[in-house]
Design a protein that fits this description.
alpha/beta, Alpha/beta knot, seven-stranded parallel beta sheet, four-stranded mixed beta sheet, 9 helices, 37% helix, elongated
Length: 243
């Protein structure tokens, strides 16, 4: 798998996942930090022309560095729960198709200390270079479970005692009225269409983020941040556990 950009590459180096670095002529500053860390970790570094970096990064903003990394470990939902803090806090993504939104959600999820993110294995954004860049390196650390069927996974979570909270703009309950100190999975729907019907029906509760301005919705990654840090606030206030 190929990732690009200074922050994603640095975090992948720190996580011990980089097999090879390809760099351009850029020196100094943070690039020197990348090269020094690669040397410490014994990672092979190749100098390549700019057009080779452009090709590897599929014209993404690579900042002069591309890395070939090991694929992340695949977790099962059962493993996420077994290795979670108490009470667990998960994020479930129902068909997020934009890799930039996926990356932004992973960045927020890692910052909030979630125990794992569940994504659909088909019809969703790839866990590739664009998502890694948007995550600012957080993708190197987040535990991710890929599943075939989100609705079935919600049943699995509920059977394990996890409260499933779906975000929906038309929900009657406000997100800050939800008790996030319980074992919780926050369920986020696709851009534009939101939660699919079967997924929506499987959620224990639906909650909305009240809008006070002229627009009637938030970007899904922003909605994830608002809700996750409400969960963090509640858990800190009540002394609930976590990673």
């Amino acid at each position: 798998m190929i990732i690009y950009g200074i922050n994603p590459v640095l975090e992948a180096l720190r996580a011990g996942r980089v097999r090879e670095l390809r760099v351009g002529a850029r020196e100094g500053g943070r690039m020197q930090e990348v090269l020094s860390l690669a040397s410490e970790r014994g990672v092979k570094v190749s100098r390549v022309p700019p057009e080779a970096l452009d090709r590897d990064a599929a014209r993404g903003v690579h900042q002069g560095v591309v890395a070939v990394i090991d694929e992340a470990r695949d977790y099962s939902v059962e493993e996420l729960l077994r290795e979670a803090g108490r009470p667990p806090l998960l994020v479930v993504l129902d068909g997020i198709e934009d890799p930039h939104n996926l990356g932004a959600i992973l960045r927020t999820a890692e910052a909030a200390g979630v125990d794992g993110v569940v994504v659909q294995s088909r019809r969703s954004a790839a866990l590739g270079g664009a998502a890694a860049k948007a995550s600012a390196g957080a993708m190197a650390y987040v535990r991710i479970a890929r599943v075939v069927n989100i609705a079935r996974t919600l049943n699995e979570l509920k059977a394990a005692g996890v409260w499933t909270v779906g975000l929906a703009g038309d929900a009657a309950k406000s997100y800050d009225a939800v008790d996030f100190t319980l074992p919780t999975a926050i369920v986020l729907g696709a851009e534009g269409v939101g939660l699919r019907r079967l997924v929506r029906e499987r959620c224990d509760v639906l909650a909305a983020i009240p809008m006070r301005g002229h627009v009637d919705s938030l970007n899904v990654s922003v909605a994830a941040g608002v809700t996750l840090f409400e969960a963090v606030r509640q858990r800190r206030q009540r002394g609930a556990g976590g990673r």
